[in-house]
Amino acid sequence: MTFELTEPILLIGLGGVGSRLTHEAKESLNSDCLLISHDQKDLNSENSIKISTKSVVNPSTQLIRGSALEASDEIKKHMENYSTIILMSNLAGKNGAGVGPVVSRICKQEQKNLLSFAIMPFKFEKERIFQSGIALKRIRQDSQCTIVIDNDALLDSNPDLTQNQCYDISNKAMESLIQSLKSSEISSDTNIMSTGKSSDNIETSLKDSLRMLYEDAPPNSIKRSMLYVYGGRNVPVGVLNTISNITGGTFDDDSTHVEMSSEESKVVMLSSIHGETKFDKYDPLGIISQENTIDWDEPECSIDCELNLKQLE
After folding, report:
1. Residue 89's domain is classified under what CATH number?
2. pLDDT surpassing 60 at residue 312
3. Contacts of residue 39, Cβ cutoff 8 Å, sequence gap at least 6
4. In a domain, 164, yes or no
5. H/E element, 178
6. What is the CA radius of gyration of the chain?
7. Domain tally for the chain?
8. What is the pTM of this model?
9. Residue 208 falls within a domain, yes or no?
């Protein structure tokens, strides 16, 4: 099955990265946007929700999530007139990991058509791995379609890149993909987005994308792969046939979408995954089936109950 993008559309950006990507995608989709963050500097739009953590200036992910739950009615009110919700969240950050599961759960309760973009952390950000894994698992459960972008896989396939270069490459790939949403088909499932550095050699960019993809999922778990070739006006037809043959020999079911609106020559690959990915291992308890999991429907959070309990000596 493919994900159906139905109007009206609301883009929801969480935190700093989500807010920037949402603003850049707004015009290409002709949609409205909503920004949500606990940090006021991320909210540069009138249509925004400030998550209050009260006097706590360095809140934990769980505290931000608990505070977001208190704003659930306000979030629900903002999305009630929309058919499709596109959620942009950086799960390496506290805002994305904390608020993402709250927003996705509201969308499921309100029976909204939800497309989620989730950016995963680098593996050396060890303190963020666990929370990002839990948040991704919940968002995947609530979404009709999830697109995962793994900065760590991009760095592994291109070890000479800096962190900022990784961010820049993945953000530009997301922008290009969002611009193509109305003209292409996306599998209604979990999808891994992979890409490489902009290059005059499209075949090199394709090989970078394949390396990045295989960092996240084994070849036998890939059901279908959609290949987006940007800068098509500058790419010889023979080269397009070559990269189509490469993907055709790699996957059982593949298709090629040529997008010619970008000046830069690059490849973005979107692969539908069936089975386990490396993100399932981010949560050590992920091997426990949902049937044997207690309180799965309630996201883990921390709230101030203001209990007046006397200390016992």
Report:
1. 3.40.50.1440
2. no
3. 15, 16, 95
4. no
5. helix 163-179
6. 20
7. 1
8. 0.85
9. no
Q: Which residue has the tokens 């692969």?
A: 271
What type of residue sits at position 114? L
Residue type at 180 in one-letter notation: S
pLDDT in tens, 152-196: 888 887 888 888 888 888 888 888 888 888 777 787 778 888 887
Average pLDDT rounded to a whole number, residues 26-53: 87
Beta strands in the chain (DSSP E): 9-14, 32-37, 48-50, 84-90, 113-120, 145-150, 190-195, 222-230, 254-259, 266-273
- Confirm whether 274 is domain-assigned: no
Mean pLDDT of 289-306: 62
Domain-located, residue 267? no
The amino acid at residue 275 is: G
Measured CA to CA, the distance from residue 178 to residue 155 in angstroms comes to 22
Please work out, in degrees rounded to the nearest 5, the angle formed at the alpha carbon of residue 250 by the alpha carbons of 201 and 162. 45
Picking from 275, 12, 13, 301, the residue whose alpha carbon sits closest to that of residue 135 is 301
Assigned token pair, 4: 């159906």
* Other Cβ atoms within 10 Å of 281 Cβ, number: 12
- Whose tokens are 């009260």? That residue is 54
Residues spanned by the domain of 19:
1-143
Q: Which amino acid belongs to residue 270?
A: L
The mean pLDDT of 12-40, rounded to a whole number, is 88
CB distance 196 to 157 below 8 Å = yes
Q: Please say whether the beta carbons of 24 and 174 come within 8 A.
A: no
Q: Measuring CA to CA, how many Å separate 128 from each of 159, 164, 193?
A: 21, 18, 20
